[in-house]
Amino acid sequence: MIQTIKWEDNSIHIIDQRRLPKKKEWLVCCSLREVIAAIREMAIRGAPAIGLAAAMGLALGSQSIKTERYGTFRRRFLEMAQQMKSARPTAANLKWAVERMITVVERMHSNPVEEIKEAIRKESHIIVERDIVINLKIGRNGLELIPDRATILTHCNAGALATCGYGTALGMIRAAREAGKDIHVIVDETRPLLQGMRLTAFELMEDNIPVTVIVDSAAGYLMKRQMIDLIIIGADRIASNGDVANKIGSYQLAVMAKENKIPFYVASPLSTFDLDLKDGDLIPIEEREPGEVISLAGHLLGPKGVKAFNPAFDITPAKYLSAIVTERGVLRSPYKRSIRNLFKAEDDRR
Ligand code: MRU
């Protein structure tokens, strides 16, 4: 399975997702600034992968802080953390990973700076290793929701490329396949950047999982004709009431799914939940360059100078979800309560 990100020769190597599936090219980042640019320009994308890149980017950045004094180190590190947090605003995993790294720095206030740097680097490795385990668990937990001989619709890419391996929504699909279920995946192309067609279709083909690409606007037609048995998407941020931010177009899929009585599932690690937010209206939605809408693969197709609006995500209200599948089990409505109970159980375990 394709690897998204790795350390090599004291630099971070990222598989450049802008070039896939045509070219498998590693982008080498030698500084914090280069990692932030890779996230912003979407060489690496997908909420968990952004979090992993942020953690590794901070580990790399911390190496360049030349001081032995804790106070100076901490101040410079917090500045870096702030820059990293602003790389992309919607994915909760970015904030989650940055805060985890800050916790390491704060906890080690009486250690020598070199030891803190080493601990930060180790923490980034831990996050990467755990991510794969988490995705395998999501896959296992979601197994009961996927019947044999199912046709599954997915949107954007919530696969190995959006994580450190296996994927969340695609993790459920992979697990079903590994359990011997006969499944077929329909994938929305996912305009404007075509993550569905370029990345999800590519990943599924590499795994020999049957896949068919449709244009985004065909989804309702297929649902109405009962050509879809269930829908699984990933998430960029989930508010404490269960409202979900995910790739633009997710909301309309959820509404159409309800209209056509098709189960609509979200697969997500706990690191994507933002319990500070009461509901989805408070989730910041990234607006990207209008040029991405009027161009395709770098070619301007719209009339030069035409206005375009490019929100990258939307919010699906919790009432449209059939379940949220996490590494700690399957959450059902009422989500406010099931999410609260899950995190309380998590706290009790610690
Ligand atoms: O803009 P992107 O490509 O970063 O958006 C990605 C998505 O919307 C994914 O569905 C989400 O991050 C979940 S990835 C496991």
Could you characterize what this model shows?
The chain is an alpha/beta fold. It has two domains: 5-136, translation initiation factor eif-2b, domain 1 (Four Helix Bundle (Hemerythrin (Met), subunit A), Up-down Bundle), CATH 1.20.120; 137-349, Rossmann fold (3-Layer(aba) Sandwich), CATH 3.40.50. Helices cover 41% and strands 17% of the residues. It has helices at residues 32-40, 47-63, 70-85, 92-107, 113-142, 169-178, 195-206, 219-224, 250-259, 291-294, 335-349; strands at residues 5-8, 11-15, 26-29, 150-154, 183-188, 211-214, 230-233, 237-239, 244-247, 264-267, 273-274, 295-296, 299-300, 313-316, 323-326, 329-331. It has a seven-stranded mixed β-sheet with strand order 6-5-4-7-10-15-16, sandwiched between helices. The model has no long low-confidence stretch (mean pLDDT 96). The chain binds 5-S-methyl-1-O-phosphono-5-thio-D-ribulose. 5-S-methyl-1-O-phosphono-5-thio-D-ribulose is lined by residues 45-48, 91, 156, 158, 162-163, 168, 195, 233-236, 246-247, 312.
Features:
350 residues, 4-stranded mixed β-sheet, binds 5-S-methyl-1-O-phosphono-5-thio-D-ribulose, Four Helix Bundle (Hemerythrin (Met), subunit A), Rossmann fold, globular, 7-stranded mixed β-sheet, alpha/beta
Which structural class best describes the helix and strand composition?
alpha/beta
Please report the first level of CATH classification, the CATH class of the largest domain: Alpha Beta
In percent, how helical is the residue content? 40-55%
CATH architecture classification name of the largest domain: 3-Layer(aba) Sandwich
> How is the CATH topology of the largest domain named?
Rossmann fold
Mean pLDDT: 96
Overall number of strands:
16
Give the name of the CATH superfamily of the largest domain. Answer: Translation initiation factor eif-2b, domain 2
When the domains are counted, the total is 2
Nearest-angstrom radius of gyration? 20 Å
- Largest sheet, described in full? 7 strands, mixed
- Which spans of ≥5 residues are poorly predicted at pLDDT below 50? none
Query: Into which percentage range does the β-strand content fall?
Result: 15-25%
* Strand order in space, largest sheet: 6-5-4-7-10-15-16
The ligands found in this model are: 5-S-methyl-1-O-phosphono-5-thio-D-ribulose
- Helix tally equals 11
Shape: globular
